[in-house]
Amino acid sequence: MIITLDAMGGDTAPQSTVYGAVWAARDFGIAIQLVGKPNRIATELAKHDTQGLDLQIIPASEVIEMEDSPAESVRSKKDASVNVGVRQVKTGKSHAFVSAGNSGGTFVASLFGLGRIKGIKRPALTTAYPTRSAHRICFLIDVGANADVKPEYLVQFGLMGSLYTEKVLGIPNPRVGLVSNGEEKDKGSKIIKEAYKLMNLAPFNFIGNIEGKDIPAGLADVIVTDGFTGNVIVKLSEGLPKGIMETIADDFKTPTTLIVGGALITTTVVAMYRTKIFGLTALLSGLLTWRKINEIKKRFDYREFGGGALLGVDGVVIVTHGRADAYTIRNAIRAAKQAVENDIVNTIKEYL
Amino acid sequence: MIITLDAMGGDTAPQSTVYGAVWAARDFGIAIQLVGKPNRIATELAKHDTQGLDLQIIPASEVIEMEDSPAESVRSKKDASVNVGVRQVKTGKSHAFVSAGNSGGTFVASLFGLGRIKGIKRPALTTAYPTRSAHRICFLIDVGANADVKPEYLVQFGLMGSLYTEKVLGIPNPRVGLVSNGEEKDKGSKIIKEAYKLMNLAPFNFIGNIEGKDIPAGLADVIVTDGFTGNVIVKLSEGLPKGIMETIADDFKTPTTLIVGGALITTTVVAMYRTKIFGLTALLSGLLTWRKINEIKKRFDYREFGGGALLGVDGVVIVTHGRADAYTIRNAIRAAKQAVENDIVNTIKEYL
User: Which domains does chain B have, with CATH numbers?
Assistant: First the structure.
């Protein structure tokens, strides 16, 4: 299997992209094509042990920057890394394309370069989202590609999301929920009410409307929404825990808390030293708590999921976060591999 | 000043409503009219010391239940507590109406009973939202009344929200932000892009588009959005911290953690006893941390804000959460008092 990576896309590219590619090539035993400026990629590759790995550089002289307008820059920068990467897939030289760059740019380049799957009205951007369910994640579609939608687009999002969640993420008979401002079927905007009716007749496990609070609770496995609301959901979910944690940190930075905290640490060390058994228990407990906290952090870490697929285009494209580090890139490549192995594109085609 | 309270509205009414009314009457020295079934209200009142308080019962034989359809039940249940309460304001027998009942019902009853302020196209439901800003809150408008909007409705939401935030919440020259799927002015659905242009010309401090992550960060004081997205924001903000906390709790409930935790507590008690100074510091630190945690909980507690106003109707109406307890009811009555004192209805009229 060959996966093409946009080596120039993302806030810390090409350092993190090249590192992630090396990591993935070793862990999954696949060939990786690195698209971008050859000398910059080569400099990064030289920092790693690439012995025995199948890594190839595909030259691309331009880059679509984060602040570039997607539609314009994809047209004007013919030799941009996303355009070159998508062409590798189109011409059959690669099985999938992965990018952490400007997601609008990747979307437009993929749409122009690969075209839509016949019958799909609008491709959509997706992401995995951590939940409390047994599967630990749900799958959000759309998270930004289509700010304006029609009811029939939402039904297709439900279908594509259901197939991806079952075939690639491995969740059997996924529950598909439609985001609305109330659980009842008469709740929602005009478009949502119409989509509800159509989804009731669709060939997937539609469980009805779900509210904002039901998403992290894990009440559905596939969360169908328009790209506007989906973007608000993803960004708010990123900002809310951050806001709460920072406020707590602010509040704990008062002189009283710092003095008392310091005194407590000092006397704890003294107590640990004087009473041997307490010292041992505290140490053991500290280690276990630390391990536990790391497990939980990992569970709510978007990096684990490696990014979402761009569904509805005629090829496998994985779009990951602009802030992706090497580990996220590695996992995004894994997601691409799984999508290819499970032949998601043909699965969608067969269902239409 | 006289405030009318829907004594029958809310999950724990009339216990919590009557308790909240007694509390508010004592704390703020105002007259309160309790609307609902007289014997049930009297039974609750008898549980409290109401000596010297101005509390009056206004009979209403019906109640709009949480599961009732707002439009139908407001029409069919003429003697519902919300209808009777709104009539008190309409006929000048009271200055404001407060309800924790079916918010759609309160909305419809207020719209029918009081009418719109002349020039206002659509009244909106609002809420205060905790943030990290110096003001500690922002003001969300609309959070559920209008699932479908037009650009000009959003501009009016910005105007009403700005006036309420300045006059009633006391935030000078509030920054008004428009929720979108990107900060740039060309981001958004068709309606949002059009609203952006109109808001740039409006007589308030418009700061542009804001993303989901900017809301808890406190980048704007007034958050303008349609009722569909506003509902998703509020419900997700309620569900997300809950989901994370519950997952952490689940994860900590393993046998290993429980055994180690128990051992640590036992040995800490032993260590506290053996080393006197550690015992004292631990106790002091425990107390301070406890106080701090309570402060933070209060800060992120929707109950502090007592609910949002229903803006755009020709009278003061405060709608609070169905799960409101006595403290929330007390604070909702305080919000009504502040809205009356600052004459929010006439302030909006003057601006139109």
Answer: 1-120+308-352 (3.40.718.10)
